[in-house]
Amino acid sequence: MAINNIFTAGGVVMIPLLGFSVLAVALIIERIKFWVMLASRQRRMVQEVLNFYRLNNVVSAIALLQQNTNLPIARIFLAALELEEATPSDFRLALETAAQAEIPLLKRFQNIFDTIINLAPLLGLLGTVLGLIASFASLNIGDVGGTQTAGVTSGISEALVSTASGLVVAIFTLLFGNTFRGLYQREITMIQENGGQLELLYRRRYERGEKPYAPSR
Prior knowledge:
Layout: H1 3-9, H2 14-54, H3 58-66, H4 72-81, H5 88-106, H6 110-138, H7 149-207
Helix pairs in contact: 1-7, 2-3, 2-6, 2-7, 3-4, 4-5, 5-7, 6-7
């Protein structure tokens, strides 16, 4: 069955389902680009920053972070490293506050994905009910096998197509939604792990009386 025939057979609920599918695909593409960008650049950049800091090259560490401010962890590290004369407690608070500020970006569109996942099957169910109503409305017991049979067949087709379409949209969105949720959890773990390393390095330098921040310009 051609796509246009499926859309016609599914009835009125196919319109919002089509809108949901187009929206889901657009948001999924955006999220894929975002996570691919993080995967390709972030880990190497973080290791270089930590190595610079271990070698007491705070200026180079901050300069590298400033070149990568489109990465969440770079903005988090900058928020702490650009503090002057911060105590270890202040440094940790800056890291935690900046990390909390990045959570909405990392979880972006998750509520929309959840809405599509929940609503698409319900729209399919609505299409099923409407199709069955149309089938019974056109059913004439005295005309079995006659012209009214076409209306019954059309109603059943609408019920089945709309149900299947709703499930397909929900399953497709659920697959990517859960994938992005897993990537978010990994990102939070990575931020906590590397943030802890940076905090430890800062604390050691602070306790040795070394200047743990970059000089103001």
